[in-house]
Structures are given as C-alpha cells and as structure tokens.
Specification:
By secondary structure, the protein is mainly alpha-helical. The protein contains four helices and two strands; from the N terminus they run H-H-H-E-E-H. Helices cover 73% and strands 7% of the residues. A hairpin with a 5-residue loop joins strand 1 and strand 2. It is elongated and about 65 Å long.
C-alpha cells in the first residue's frame, strides 16, 4: 500500500507537471524546451502515479494507449518532415498564420508538429520502460520477501 504522503504528492504535483510539460512543448520551437523534455516531464508525472497508486493501476489506465501513441507520434513526426517537401526539402519549415481577431495572430508550423510527434514517442517509450521496470521490481521484492 502506497504511503499517504505519496498519494498527496501525486494529487498536487501530477497536474503541475502535466501543465508544465505542455508549456515546454508549445514554447520549444522558439525557446528552450520542446517535445523531448516535455515528454520526459510527462513520464515523470506517470512515474509519480506509479509510485503512489501502483504499477497495475497505471498500466490499466494508461498502458493500453502507449503503443497507439508511439505509432501516432512517429506518424506525426515523419509527416511534418514530408510537409516540408512542398518547400523543396525534407523537414523544411512550413508556417501558417491564423488570425484570432482581437486576440492577435497564431503561428503554427511544422516544427510544432514535429515536437508533438517527439513528445508522444518519448512519453510512450519512457512510460513503457518505467512500467516494466516497476513490475520487475515488484516481482523481485515478492520473490525475496520472507515467507
């Protein structure tokens, strides 16, 4: 049974880590950050949930989506590079400006798409690794526990 303080930390820190990871993801194409570090931060939030709720609970809630997210992330990352072919080179930046009226303009481009793809791949791989590592640690502790 996880300790009370871990469950309390999970309730407070997981939303903070997820919001911060989205912030890093969206600012990464102009400033430091991006899909890789945002994906690691999201995986850290999942590890906190694994420690507080247990591996089986997180695997039940998140595990079935990991392979799909990995494939989707690869598709988005490669697709953003293919879109650059319209500019004459693979991975060339293509930008679209959207007018938001009084709120200003929003610039979206293929670097953002690439970062989203990397984010999904990193979250999927890191979370799968952490789930497997925790399952193996739990099995080892059960084997070594006094009978």
């Amino acid at each position: 049974m996880p300790e009370l303080y871990l469950r309390m930390l999970d309730r407070v820190l997981t939303p903070v880590l997820l919001v911060l990871s989205i912030f890093l993801l969206l600012r990464g194409h102009n400033l430091p950050g991006g899909g890789f570090i945002a994906g690691l931060m999201t995986a850290a939030a999942f590890e906190l949930q694994i420690l507080s709720r247990g591996e089986a609970s997180v695997r039940r809630d998140v595990g079935r989506y990991l392979n799909r997210a990995l494939g989707l992330g690869l598709l988005i990352a490669v697709g953003s590079g293919v879109v650059g072919l319209s500019r004459g080179a693979f991975m060339a930046g293509v930008w679209v400006e959207l007018s938001l009226g009084p709120l200003g303009e929003l610039k979206l481009g293929t670097p953002v798409l690439f970062d989203i793809g990397v984010y999904l791949v990193v979250v999927s791989v890191a979370t799968s690794y952490l789930l497997t590592l925790n399952r193996l640690a739990e099995e080892a502790s059960r084997r070594n526990a006094p009978q």
